[in-house]
Every structure is written in structure tokens, then in C-alpha cells.
Predict the 3D structure of the following.
Amino acid sequence: MSAESPGPKQSGFKAFWANALRPKKSRQTLRKGASRSMTDLRRMSTRPSTSLDEAPPPMPDLAPLEAHRLKYREAHANLDSQLGERQDYTAIIHTLGILDPEDTYSAALMDRENRPPGEEDITKVPPDVWILIASFLTPSDAASLTIASITLYRRLGPRYLSILQAPQNLSEKLTFLTRIDYSLPHHLLCFPCGRYHRRTAEGTERLKPAHVVNPLFECPEVLNILNPPPRTRITPGRILPFSFVQLLLRAHRFGPKYGIQPESMARRWTRDGWTYTSRFLIHEGRLLMRVTSQTFADPALPPSAQRLLLHSREDYWPYFSACAHWRDGELMPACRCALEHIPHPRATGGLQGLEHKVKDTWQKRVFDPNALTTLCGFCRPMRRCPECPTEYLIEVKLTEDKMDPRGLRFRQAIVVTRWSDLGDGTSPEGLEWAAVNGKSEDYDSFTHRNYAKRGIASWFEAAFTADTLPGQRVISLNPKRKKLGEKGHDWY
């Protein structure tokens, strides 16, 4: 009887071991299938071949997943895997030839220096047409078109250059002369007389105090008080002529031989008990200036002593650096408020000193007259002038005083830091330069594109240190926009 045939089950010890050692049904199935496949292979191997030239079976195709990958790569061969943009190299190569002349891409500008002359194209246009085109231009633009080439000069003649000599066209003449600044590295444009002068101290120009004669070139208008050169006030006895702004930005745009570097303009000086430190930076083609002014201040100063400490006796301007709009707004009230936060020493004798000791013991505090001073919400925030690109920060710091005859090693000092944007140095009628000097009425520093989201102080300090400034609110120096000038009473 086979193992699969049904029948009466045997019992006993021998039947138990017989059933235990009997192969399983699944093993018999696999063994039967394996024996059947081996039988088929033997039959195929013993089958005689019908033809010796029979072709072998074809190779199987790729797996479905690999075939899908190859098809996807072919369809997205020009697609950027990071940005998802289609990379058409033909379009990229064509765009290199149509870049604007203002772009700084060297590969696109490489062929512009060796381009063929366009004299033949200019001669194709009749002279009357060129004269008509120049009549629609401003005098400075027409003069620039005249000197563009010798062919254009023959077509237009010297008439547009002669128009610039008229006194009423002085601003147009200065605009035209500014455009040829690149071709005159050894000269400097003089704005009072409207011509270029040879630099007398080329490469060695240094900023000096106002009472020191410091000519950069020889000009017949240098002693004409009715036509002074453009300049701005830094502090009492210190001015910044516009000529130095020209030198700094010319060297930045054209090269070192055209001017001087900003590092050579840094200064530190002392006057009337105040200590000053100035520094300059060129950021995005504009000159930024920082002036830090500080002086020691005694606690509990009366209003008259505060005026003597903050204001110069010469012109009643502040001793610290300020823009032309310092009288309007809250600059001087904020400085006086900061002086009132300086802690003053207490009386330690008699019952009054005992009362202070009992109060300090009861409140578990220790009085220190040299402790760090904390300003209030009125004088602590950073102020920005709404009418010019200038920012102020008022601080009270504990500073070492080595010259105090009373023997006080450390004293409280008021520190006023000013950051200003002086413009691009092309003309004293520029937007930033005119606004800082109070000659522009349409400037709004809070809506200007350069400093609407980031302050001048942030740009300046980020260029010299990796650390960030402490978080300060930037509020308006004149929130009510009242322009009282000397008629107001808060500035003094």
C-alpha cells in the first residue's frame, strides 16, 4: 500500500515511527515536479537537430523599469534637475551677444573692443538728419554725440560745444565734463569754474583741518567767497570738500591712479574736550561716512551745563557730527535725555547716608555709581533723518579717563555716532549729497530703495566686522515732520 492510499491506520510503536519517518506530501510534490522537468530536459537533449543554420533565440528586452528610465532621460535631457528649468544651450549662446552695454559680463564685452568701426553706417545718414536728431537732445547729450567720432563732429560741427559755454548752461556743461572723467586721470573737475585742473599733489592728497591751506589744484576761484567750492561740515573745525569725494569714487570706478583709497581718509582727533573718529566706506558705488564723537559728562547737569557740553560757541552747532536737519526733530532732546540717565553719587554722611543704606539693604541691592547705564525708550532707539540718508545712535558708556585731575579712573561718557551716505561723487547736485547738506526737499529716507529695508549703519558695520550690531529700533528723527529751524526751542 502506498503512502497516499487511504486505509486503516495502524497503531502501536512501530506504526508511530513509520508515520513519523514517512516523507511529507509537499516534498513528494516538489520531487515529482523536479523529476518531470529533468525528464523533459533529457528528451530535448536527445532530440535530433533539424538544421545546423538555425538562428539562436533573440535576447530578451530590458526590464520595464530600466526602459522607463531611459525613456524619461531622453525626454528630459535639457531639464535642470535642481531648478526644473529647461536648458537650451542655443538660446543661452544667443543671449550672450545681446547683453546690455552696462552689464559687466566679460565674455559678452570681449568683442566690443574689437568691433568694426561704424563710420560707414554714419555716413549713410544725411547730415540734416543728424542735426535733427541732435535738436531733440539736451545740450550735454548733443555735445556727447558730437565728440563720439570724427565723422559725427564733421556732420554736427562745434555749435553744440559752443552752447555749453553760456553761463546759463553751467549745469549742462558740468554734466558733459563728468562723462569724460575717465580720459583725464591726472586732472580733477572744478565745479565752481567748470573746468578741469591739473592735480598738484597727485596720489598724496590728505584730508586736513579747515584752518590748514590744502589745495588739490590751482584754481582762480579759490579765494572767491561768493562762489565757494562744494563741501560739507563734519564737526567744528573739520569739513569734507567734494573734491575728496571725487577722488575716492574715481579710484573705485577707474583705478588707483585716478584718486585715493578710503583707508587713507580715516582720522582721529580731539577738540574742545571731544574725541572724534572718522571712517569711510564705498558701498555699491556710493561713499558712506561714519563719525563717532564722545566726551565725558558729569552726572546731574543743569540745562545750562548741558547746552555748554553739547553746543559749540562758534556757530551753536552741536559738537558732535550732525546733518543739516539737526534742529528739526528730537536729536537734541534725546541727547539731553541720555545725560539725565547718568547715575550721580549719593550722600554717605549723616542720616541721609544711613537712610540710603537701609533702603539698599531692605531691597537687596548694591549701589554702584560706575555701573552700566541703561537708557530709556526715548533716547535708546536709533534715529534716522527722514530728509537725508543719515542715522544717529546715542549711547552712554563707562570710559577710562587718564587725564582727570580728581583721580577718577573711570567716568561716564556720552557717545554720538553718525552714519551718512554722501552719494556717488559725480556732482554736488546729486541726490544724497544735496540732501545731507539741506539743498534737496524731495528726499525721503524711509521710502528710498537703498535703505527702505536695511539701514546705513548695518551696511557700514557689516563691511568691517562679522559680528552684528545689537538690535536697535530705527525710528524717525522728526516723526511729526515739523520744520521750525532756529524758530524752534527744542534744539537749544
Q: What stands out?
A: Residues 1-6, 27-34, 99-111 have pLDDT under 50 and may be disordered.
